[in-house]
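Render this sequence as a predicted structure.
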Amino acid sequence: MKLNLEIELDWINDEMSLDDVVKQQIISGVMTKINQSLLAKIESKVEKMIDKTIVKRINQATDKMFRNFMKRPVQLTDNYGSTIKEYKNITQVIKERFDNFMTETVDDNGNASNSNYGTKYKRLYFIIDKQLKDFANTFTTNAVKTVSAEIKTHVQEGLTQKLGSELMKILKVDEMLKLQQNN
């Protein structure tokens, strides 16, 4: 701990000597610094405890509100306000929606649709169809790349061999080799 002290010697009493006044000022300064340090530490700990308590209380209140919300009865209505269906609680709504999710009718983009226009699919078939198309596109693209690379390699090899034999005929390399053997 670092301690900086300032001492003011404005007055000295007849009963106290300079040493006593300095001693008193030093003790007073040290006590003030220690009090400030302790106060800061206590404030920090109290703030942490308050934060912890507040977060705990907020979590408890949120949990309670969520549980109450999930227990609440639900009524689905049409555009005119007439009740279409009633549920005992929100959990039942979620279960039903989840159960119906894969059999729900969707449009060409996979969005839920009740419209009579355009192509319609059950979500399950839409997902399967999309996955098959993606697989087929990827497989086809890779196959075309592989076959193209192999064709290019075979064509280059064939051309190299054919051009090499034609060049040998044009340059009459066979005759030159025969002459060199005779020498």
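Summary. The radius of gyration is 46 Å. The chain has four helices and four strands.
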